[in-house]
Structure formats: C-alpha cells, structure tokens
User: Which sequence fits this backbone?
C-alpha cells in the first residue's frame, strides 16, 4: 500500500457552519442527481424506442415524446449541479481538488463532452421530423449522445470515489489508472440502473397528466404507456437489490464506523422492496386503476433517494474524518511555522 | 504545493482558463445579459404595433441564444470553475471561502435565469395573445434583469481579485464584495453587453429577414439605434474603469515600479475602447441611415472589434492584478504572501507534500546520478513557475531564457541570479518563493530543459509521490513517540 499523504489545508475558516454546508451538499445533490437520471435515462429510452420505431411506427412517436423531456431536464440538471459543487469544494477542499488534479484530463474533458452531447440532443430533437428520411443519421445523433452520457458520469464517479481514499492517491496515474480501483464499477452500475428507473417514473408522470390528444398521438393507450413506465422503474430497481449491496460490500474498509451507513442502507432496501411491490401491483392493474398509487411510489422513491444521499454522506465522513483531523493538525503546525518565520523576518527587518 | 499539480505543457495552464473564460464571457455578455432585454423589447414593440413579423424575428433570435447559452454558455461557466480548480486550486479554494454566499446567491439567481429562459422560450407560442402576451413580455424583461444580476455578482469577485481593498484587514463578505474595482467594472461591462447584443442582433436579423425587406430595414435601423443608446454609456463606464486601473495597480505594486510596459498597456486600453467604439458607431450610423444597404458581413466587423476590446479588457484585468492572483494576499504562483518568509528560509521542497515524478522522456539522456537533482529541480519549477509558464510550450521558461541568453549553452549562475531578482526587473513577476538551494536546483533544471524538449508531465499523467515526512503513518508515529515521551517524563 502506498503512503497516505497529509497535505496542508486552505488556512481560511469555513464560510458557514458545517451542518449548513452539508445540507446544501446533500439536499441539492439529490435534486441534481434526480435530473441527471432523467436526462441520461431519457436519452437511453429515446434511443431504445426509436430503434423499436424502425419496425413499429408508434414507438417512434413514443421516442419523440420522451426525447422532448431531455433538453429541459439537462438544463435543470446542469444548473442544480453548481450548488453541490460549491459545497463540496468548500467542505472537502483537500480531497476533491486532489482527485480532480489526479484525473485532470478526464475532469476537464467533461466540458467539451457535455457541450457536444447537449448540442446532439438539441439537433436530435429539433431535426426529428426533418430527418425522417435520414433515420440512420438521426439515430447516430442520439447514439453518440448516449455514449457520452454513459462516459461522463464515470468521470464524476471516479472523482468523488477517489477523493475518499487518500491512501490510494499516490498509486493513481491518471483517470484510466483510477478506473482500475475495483470499487468504482459497482457504484457505476448502481447509477446506471437508477437512470431508466427514474425515467420510468417520469414517463408515468408525463403520460398520467398528458391530454387525450397527446396520448392518442403516440398510438398507445394511456394505461399501456403507464405500464411501460412502471416496468422501466420496476425491473432496474429489482436489479439494484443485487447491485446495491455489492456496491456497499466492495467499498474499502474505512477508519470511521460504518454501522450507521449499514443501517441507513438497510432501511433503504426495505423501503425499496415496498416500492417494488407497489409498482408491481400497479403494472397488474386495469386501465382505469393504473397510476392510482403513483403518489405513494414517488414518495417511497424520494425516501430511498434521501436515504442513499444521507448514507453516502455518512460513509464519506467515516472515510475522511480521521484523515481530516491529521490535515487539521498539519495545517495548524504549518501556520505556526509561517507565523514564526514572519515574526523573525519582521524582527530582522526592524533591526536593520 | 499541497495539491497534486496539474500541468499542461503545450497550451499552458493559463491558456486553458483563457479559452474557456473568453468564450464564456462573449456568450454571457452578448447572448444573455445584453440580448434578453433586447429580445423582450422587440417582442414588446411587435405587440405594440400588432405586427407578428417582429414577434417572429424576436423568437428566432431568442431561439439561437437559447441553444447557445444553455449548451456552450452554461458549460463554459462550469468549465471556468473546473479549469481554475485544476490550474490554481489555492486561489479558487480561497475565493470560495470568502465568497461562498455571494456565489450561492449568484447560483440561486442563475437557477432563476435558467428557469426563466426555458419558460420564456417554451411559452412563446402558447402565451401569444391578450394578457398572456403581456405576461410573456414581462417574463422576458425579468429574464433580462436576472441575467444582469448574475453578472453583477460575478464582477464583484473579479474586482476583488484585482484589488481586495479593505478585505485584507476586515475579512468579511461585504467588504470583499464592495471592492474598489467593482462598480467601474460593472459600469463598463453592462453597456458593453448591451452593445454586443445589438451587433449580434443586427447580424441575426440579416440572416432571418431575407424575404422581408421592409422588416429588415426597420429591424436593422432599430439595432443601430439600440447600439447608439448604449455607446455613450460604455464610453463613460470605460473611462471610469480606465481611471481606476492605476489605483488598483498602485495598490499591488509600489508606484516606482509602474513600468513603461504597464503605461503602454494602459494607454492601449483607452485607445482600444475609443477605436472600437468609433468603428461600432460608424456601422450603427450606417445601419440607421442606410439600413437596406447593410451587407450580412458588416456586423461582423464591430463584433470583431468588440471581441478584440473584450479580450484586451480581460488581459488588462489580468495584468493589473499581477503579480498576485488575489491582490496582496496570494501571488500568481498560488503561494500566499504570508508563506514567503517560511519558504524562503526553509526552501519550497521542505514543506511540499507532493512531488511530480519525472517521466522517462523527461529524464532523457540524463545520467542516473543526476536524476535526484533533476527531480527536485522539476518540483521547484512545478511549485514556483508552472502556474503561468510551460517548459517548452506557450509562454515557456526556455523561450524567456533563449531571448535573454541566446541559443548557446546557458550559464546556470546567470539563471540563478536572474531568477533571484526578476521581480525587480519585471514587477509583474512574483518574487522567487524559495531559498538559494531551490534557485540552484531550478537553474540546473533549466539547463536540462534547454537540451530536452520533452513535455513536462503533470500529476494528471505522471501521478505523485509523497514526501515521507508528511504521511499519515509518519504523523501517527510521531504522535505515539510524543505520547511515550510524555509517559516517561511522568
């Protein structure tokens, strides 16, 4: 194992009480990630249905309806990401910036990649009808956007994971080297599954409230559309029962206690199970009844996401709290030396 | 020093920030802050005259702005943050600690701005008649206002970096926010943004009104008038800013060091402002009096002038704050002014947590015995020079020495002597932050760079090694030893 560095922190006080910054970080991150899920999941589902639409025209219309949500969700996702970024920069300065620097090329490539993906999604949406005769090219636009959306979260995930393990920093030589850290992949799978699941619920919301004309335009019955949405939400969530615990179990042991993390994730598994049962029941309901538990399902999903966000924060704290004490100690020691050297120089200058 | 050091040896670290930031400023000023009130005004005019053609033209212009601002504009905004966090984490981390709430409020305003632009664009066709239309026009003006507020907050942070004013003694957000350069910059940028929008609107009008000569004539004339309204305000704002620059400069440097170079830059700034403005006014006048004869390329001329002026303005802004990245608090190399006595006494490497290993290409033909010294030389370079300079790329150190010492083999003693006193000769350079040994190591490394042009690898590819003195293991061992010693004393 490589040595664990203990750097000096920025010698300025936090601009707000720590709990306030934590609330900003966790609260707004949850909102941000929900819209990221909608955006990425929406792109995947659009691609999927547009491909199906090559054989059956009405799927193309469904794909169009879903694609209309991507661009609005992406704008909200970006703007909601700024607050958590601000808070994580403040709370975890040493950790976050170190992970950024060690994966620097990939970190900065987020900007051109996401710009490209966004422009592709706009082109895909606004040229939909004009490109009816160039379907291959049209599909290429959304495929390329999907690939970018597959890759970019991996960069973020690598950063926020790498920052938690100072003992791994000296062993990393760039982004792809950081990817070899085994615990990144189960977390990535966990994120990927959440995207269609969340977008499935978005579909239910969209088609529950859609006007009869809008629904008729898709060529599907309303109940059929709601069922599809629930299926997208249900089956990836069922898979999470395998992936979630795997992500938890593969996380490296950390210095702090993770008992609270296990409890929080345990509760989230129970809540998820209830939510899955409800969604399964929804998929079995008839035309006029389907969607009646949507409020309950959304509430349970919100609880699961809150628990996930909270649990992640508890784990983050367990991972870095001991190291942070050492950083504080080193920073204080360094500042004492700085003050002594300044005093000595001032005395010397005064004596001249 | 205390973060792994990211480094781009071809483009240069500053180049990365500059590309992203200038693109962002142009989009933010021209397509958001200046354009939203202009589009709302066009919509209002169309509604007042009950002329749907104005409404359609306004929508087309808005749609272009919507596409660009919500993609390139939004992402370059985040990109400034990401690039600065890579290039100078010390400065951005410090600024965040000071301006957290300023940035937080700016973020809330930004959320409002994005929601408004999405709502304004998507409801255009739905809210098209009666009171709904009036509401929509108000939404447009509200969007313009919030776009301006985001700029007004960010300008404060930029002004703070040039001259923090009383913050150095009273470290509060309000004192930092109301720094001396704040209002002059805002007074300059606001009409600049509105004028830039007028020029872009003129160009887009020429693109969108080919089939309607009457609308084209009226809209081009209106864009010309819009530019004429804000031109004098920009001149006043520019003059105010111009007159405040020497004060900020004097705060950063002793007056005796205000060199010819600065005077040249400063003089050039006002010439650039006046020259660009004259060019813009000529085009605006032509647009007003001969709107039907304006060719499509013509607005590109004042647009180029505005880009040039904005670029020069930003360069002067950067120039004024040198040798600091945060005036009188932190030098451009990311080292705090207060840290200098310690580092100059003990040397940079004594307190550095990380080292950035040499790659094979960087070692080149060096003998194994030379490698430890080269490694230390590289680390001194990375800490003291690499935030602004590359080895052999843009703004390279080798280029600087080649200009001074020619192509023959350089004299390391001359390099050391120059580095030790360069801030006297070039007051825009920070003083050398290390001690004599660091200078010697750096001199030797410069000689190596003269012979070996391999790119200098940053932490993002070479990784890092850790100073054994600053590891958790060493600190814990020292702590146990201390506890044991205390036990024995008892």
Assistant:
């Amino acid at each position: 194992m490589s040595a664990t560095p203990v750097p000096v922190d920025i010698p300025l006080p936090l601009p707000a009480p720590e709990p306030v910054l934590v609330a900003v970080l966790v609260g707004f991150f949850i909102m941000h990630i929900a819209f990221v899920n909608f955006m990425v999941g929406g792109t995947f589902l659009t691609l999927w249905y547009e491909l199906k639409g090559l054989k059956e025209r009405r799927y193309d219309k469904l794909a169009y309806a879903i694609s209309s949500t991507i661009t609005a969700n992406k704008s909200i996702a970006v703007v909601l990401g700024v607050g958590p970024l601000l808070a994580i920069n403040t709370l975890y300065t040493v950790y976050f910036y170190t992970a950024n620097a060690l994966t620097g090329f990939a970190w900065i490539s987020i900007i051109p990649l996401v710009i490209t993906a966004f422009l592709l999604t706009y082109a895909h949406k606004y040229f939909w009808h004009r490109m009816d005769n160039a379907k291959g090219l049209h599909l290429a636009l959304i495929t390329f956007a999907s690939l970018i959306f597959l890759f970019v979260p991996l960069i973020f995930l690598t950063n926020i994971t790498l920052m938690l393990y100072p003992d791994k920093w000296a062993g990393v030589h760039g982004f792809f080297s950081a990817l070899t850290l085994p615990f990144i992949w189960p977390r990535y799978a966990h994120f990927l599954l959440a995207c269609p699941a969340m977008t499935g619920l978005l579909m239910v919301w969209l088609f529950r409230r859609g006007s009869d004309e809008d629904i008729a335009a898709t060529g599907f019955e309303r109940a059929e559309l709601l069922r599809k949405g629930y299926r997208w939400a249900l089956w990836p969530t069922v898979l999470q029962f395998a992936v979630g615990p795997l992500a938890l179990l593969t996380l490296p042991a950390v210095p702090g206690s993770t008992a609270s993390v296990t409890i929080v994730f345990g509760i989230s598994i129970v809540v998820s199970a209830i939510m899955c049962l409800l969604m399964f029941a929804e998929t079995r309901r008839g035309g006029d009844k389907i969607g009646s538990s949507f409020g309950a399902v959304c509430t349970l999903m919100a609880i699961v996401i809150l628990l996930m966000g909270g649990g992640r924060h508890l784990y983050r704290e367990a991972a870095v709290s001991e190291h942070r004490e050492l950083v504080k100690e080193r920073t204080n020691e360094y500042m004492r030396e700085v003050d002594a050297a300044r005093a000595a120089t001032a005395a010397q200058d005064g004596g001249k | 020093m205390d973060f792994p050091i990211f480094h781009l040896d071809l483009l240069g670290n500053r180049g990365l920030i500059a590309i992203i930031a200038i693109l962002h400023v142009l989009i933010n000023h021209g397509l958001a802050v200046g354009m939203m009130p202009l589009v709302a005004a066009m919509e209002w005019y169309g509604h007042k005259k009950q002329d749907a053609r104005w409404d359609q033209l306004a929508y087309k212009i808005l749609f272009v702005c919507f596409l660009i601002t919500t993609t390139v504009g939004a992402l370059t905004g985040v990109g400034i943050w990401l690039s600065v966090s890579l290039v100078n984490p010390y400065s951005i981390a410090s600024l965040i600690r000071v301006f957290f709430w300023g940035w937080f409020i700016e973020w809330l305003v930004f959320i409002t701005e994005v929601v408004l632009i999405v709502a304004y664009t998507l409801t255009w066709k739905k809210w098209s008649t009666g009171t709904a239309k009036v509401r929509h026009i108000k939404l447009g003006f509200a969007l313009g206002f919030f776009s301006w507020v985001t700029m007004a907050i960010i300008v404060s942070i930029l002004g703070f970096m040039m001259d923090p004013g009383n913050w150095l003694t009273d470290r509060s957000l309000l004192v930092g926010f109301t720094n001396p350069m704040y209002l002059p910059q805002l007074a300059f940028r606001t009409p600049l943004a509105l004028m830039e929008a007028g020029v872009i609107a003129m160009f887009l009008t020429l693109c969108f009104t080919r089939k309607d000569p009457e609308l084209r004539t009226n809209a081009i004339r209106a864009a010309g008038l819009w530019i004429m309204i804000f031109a004098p305000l920009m001149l006043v704002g520019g003059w105010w800013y111009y007159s405040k620059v020497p004060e900020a400069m004097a705060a950063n440097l002793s007056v005796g060091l205000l060199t010819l170079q600065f005077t040249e830059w400063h003089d050039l700034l006002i010439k650039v402002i006046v020259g660009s403005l004259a060019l813009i006014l000529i085009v605006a006048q032509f647009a007003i009096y001969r709107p039907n004869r304006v060719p499509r390329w013509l607005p590109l001329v004042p647009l180029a002038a505005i880009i040039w002026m904005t670029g020069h303005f930003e360069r002067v802004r950067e120039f004024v704050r040198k040798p600091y990245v945060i005036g009188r608090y932190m030098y451009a190399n990311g080292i705090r002014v207060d840290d200098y006595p310690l580092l100059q006494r003990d040397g940079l490497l004594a307190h550095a947590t990380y080292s950035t290993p040499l790659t094979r290409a960087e070692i080149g033909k060096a003998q194994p015995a030379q490698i430890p010294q080269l490694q230390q030389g590289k680390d001194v370079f990375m800490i003291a020079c690499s935030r602004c300079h590359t080895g052999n790329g843009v703004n390279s150190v080798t280029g600087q020495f080649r200009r001074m010492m020619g192509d023959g083999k350089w004299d390391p003693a001359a390099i050391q002597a120059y580095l030790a006193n360069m801030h006297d000769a070039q007051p825009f350079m920070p003083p050398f932050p290390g001690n004599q040994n660091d200078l010697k190591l750096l001199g030797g490394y410069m000689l190596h760079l003269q012979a070996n042009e391999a790119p200098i690898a940053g932490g993002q590819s070479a990784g890092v090694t850790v100073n054994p003195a600053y590891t958790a293991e060493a600190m814990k061992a020292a702590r146990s030893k201390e506890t044991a010693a205390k036990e024995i004393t008892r």
